[in-house]
Specification:
With about 350 residues, this protein is mostly helical. Helix content is about 65%, strand content about 10%. Among the domains are: about 130-185; about 220-340, no CATH class. It has 12 helices and 8 strands. It has a 3-stranded antiparallel beta sheet with strand order 3-8-7. A 3-stranded antiparallel beta sheet has the order 4-5-6, with no helix packed on it. It has a two-stranded antiparallel ribbon with strand order 1-2.
């Protein structure tokens, strides 16, 4: 009986000691923490360097001897501490932390050797490759999920069609099934197919046709004297120009044209009086650059003869305007006559004309 009581007393003492152990340990740790703080506050710079060197050596030795499990636990704790500190930090603290991290990385990079730099770049390259591979896998998984969803929808549509079809509409059902299979094949293909040879050939032929000389050929409009594409221009006999009466010029412009032509003829012909009177009294006159008859002016660059018929070339804008009964914008009837082109400028190329018009 006495032995039993002694054992009970010992177990109670052990329980009390175990219950008091955490408190004593916490007190001891707090005292040690205060002592270390006071010693750090009073230590010199040399003592601080020695302490940091010793701590660094202890850390290196512990890292060298730790197992993989201990390393994983240490990294996990370090990650949790950093995440908790980052979640509670303010914007200023975050800026300070990033600045210090940047300075540390810059200082370490300036002092690193060639081998250390190479190992750092290799690690960085491996991390980037791993991130790219992870993104590719996620993208493929999302594409597969989308394709599977489309397949499920198509299967539902197929079941609906199976329920609705009967013996009389069997052919229609077969056609719909082929269309659904074709659509499924198109949706399941993740990568685009190579361009077919026929499509390349067709595109090349269309390009050559649209860039050929016949497609890019230009003609001059007889009404506005503006170059336009042959494909969009209209060839109309002069007698059949729609609403040709709208092309009659005003009396002031007619007098100006006749006086200009008479002055030109006066310098080229000796019999000035007779020729001038003939020009002023006539109702038609042909110049090197325009054709004048009954008060209507047409530019000679847009006139030609086909099968003994006097033809005129009209641009699309002038033809549409005359068809609607509107005076063309750049016609001589709208007081847009500029007179004869000087002989020095008649043989200019298109780039030269564009250059002198600047």
């Amino acid at each position: 009986m006495g032995i039993v009581t002694v054992q009970l007393n010992n177990s109670d003492a052990m329980r009390e000691s175990q219950n008091g152990m955490p408190e004593k340990r916490q007190i001891r740790l707090d005292k040690r923490k205060e002592q270390s703080r006071s010693s750090r506050a009073n230590e010199t710079e040399e003592q601080r360097q020695i302490r940091l060197e010793k701590q660094k050596m202890r850390d290196q030795s512990s890292l060298a001897t730790e197992t993989d499990e201990e390393r994983q636990i240490r990294l996990k704790k370090l990650k949790e501490r950093s995440e908790s500190s980052r979640t509670n930090e303010t914007i200023e603290q975050r800026q300070i932390r990033l600045k210090e991290l940047k300075e540390r990385s810059q200082s370490s990079r300036t002092n690193e050797t060639v081998e250390q730099r190479q190992t750092r770049l290799d690690k960085q390259r491996k991390r980037s490759q791993a991130n790219r591979a992870k993104k590719k896998l996620e993208k493929r998984a999302s594409n597969k999920s989308g394709v599977q969803q489309q397949d499920i929808e198509m299967q539902f549509s197929e079941t609906d069609e199976h329920a609705l079809c009967d013996s009389s509409s069997l052919s229609n059902f077969i056609q719909n099934e082929h269309a659904i299979r074709k659509k499924r094949d198109l949706s399941s293909s993740a990568w685009p197919e190579p361009i077919s040879h026929d499509l390349k050939k067709t595109c090349l032929q269309q390009f050559l046709q649209q860039m050929s000389m016949s497609a890019l050929a230009e003609v001059t409009c007889a009404v506005c004297n503006v170059r336009s594409l042959v494909q969009t221009s209209k060839k109309v006999p002069i007698s059949k120009i729609p609403n040709i009466h709208l092309l009659k010029v005003s009396d002031e412009l007619k007098d100006l044209i006749l006086s200009t032509q008479s002055s030109v003829l006066r310098h080229s012909i000796d019999d000035t009086i007779q020729m001038t009177g003939h020009v002023q009294n006539s109702t038609s006159f042909n110049s090197a650059s325009f054709y004048y008859e009954n008060g209507i002016i047409l530019y000679t660059n847009g006139l030609h003869q086909e099968n003994k018929t006097h033809m005129s070339t009209l641009c699309q804008k002038c033809h549409v305007a005359l068809t609607k009964g509107i005076i063309p914008k750049f016609s001589a009837a709208n007081n847009m006559w500029l007179g004869d082109v000087p002989a020095e400028l008649q043989d200019l190329t298109i780039p030269e004309e564009k250059l002198i018009s600047l």
